[in-house]
Amino acid sequence: MARLSFPKTLLEFQSKFADEVACQQYLSACRWPEGFVCPRCRGRRAYELVKLRRWQCTSCRHQSSLTAGTILHNTKTPLTIWFWAAYLMTTDKRGVSALLLQRQLGLRRYETAWMMLHKLRRAMVNIAREPLRGEVEVDDTWVGGTQAGLRGSRQLKGRKAALVLVAVEKRGRATGRARMAVIPDFKSTTLMAFLKQNLAPGTTVYTDGLKTFTGLREAGFKHVPRSQPLRSELSKGAKSVVPLADRAIGNLQQWLIGTYHGVSRDQLPIYLDEFVFRHNRRRSPMAAFQTLLGLGSGRKPSSYDQIRGATDLSEQPTEV
Question: What is the pLDDT of residue 154?
Fold first, then answer.
């Protein structure tokens, strides 16, 4: 199917999605790209009930809600507001905080803006995504700041920060697509599970000298391990053996602090999804807006309690 057209400028966005009807028509095209299909009789003809956000089958008269079963399930917020939120979230490389979204859209409650952003983040994972391939750098980092009283950078016991594994494609000297995930430990089985899920077989993997990366060749990857300089040497200008991965880690850390002033450990996976979604579409932010709506129309809804407790995050893979 041909990709839906998407607004390339702010003026075009304002004109294209000026009212609720226009938003409903665009969202229905995202949800049913090959045309409406009745869930009851599989009929292909229907007419729109605009005020109810529903489509009624002309054969069996069954009504299908436009937003039911999506991230917008049971929403009382106008679609025009949702579209603006998606636009602001995808076109600004820094993202948008809930407080800023509340101010820009004139929302009464901060909680409404916070919930909208978290629902949109849950639509940023494309289950049918293509794995990374070619040459890929892999590195780990801690997200959560330094902590006194720890013995070494790889101590897990008593650690409050979250351990994050990062993989970045090499495209010459440039950075390609990325994957990020919170992992529980440095065990070889943990690292291997991440690599098998996110990298294509035959990929050349560049890593530091961490011993738990052994076994990559047996798993079908080409492994190029290199000894990473000490942190003190890196601070003095020594070159990292995984510079692209380190650059992505630095950008992630700055983004979390600069836009959100830090996030909770439980909610971190969904923020990684947002960072990677925007990173992988940084050259086409306007297209990212349409992609987000399309993914959101196929993503099952999460309840308020699930989002607040982040209990649904373990049910989905990380990244797009």
Answer: 62
- Write the DSSP string, 240-301: PSSHHHHHHHHHHHHHHHHHHS---TTTHHHHHHHHHHHHHTTT-HHHHHHHHHHHHHTSPP
Instruction: Please identify every stretch of the chain with a pLDDT value under 70, giving residue numbers as ranges.
Output: 1-4, 145-159, 230-232, 234-236, 314-320
Q: What angle do CA 167, 302, 120 make, to 5 degrees?
A: 55
Exposed/middle/buried for residue 152 (C-beta within 10 Å: 0-12, 13-18, 19+)? exposed
**CA proximity to 259, closest of 280, 278, 245, 244:** 278
How many other C-beta atoms lie within 10 A of the C-beta of residue 228?
A: 19
> pLDDT value at position 215?
87
Question: What number of other Cβ atoms are within 10 A of residue 25's Cβ?
Answer: 13
- DSSP summary character for residue 184: S
Which amino acid is residue 246, in one-letter code?
A: D
Instruction: Tell me the C-alpha distance between 284 and 56, whole Å.
Output: 35
What residue type is assigned to position 192 of the chain? M
Tokens linked to 288: 């990212």
| CB of 169 closer than 8 Å to CB of 177 | yes
**Cβ-based neighbour number of residue 65 at 10 Å:** 15
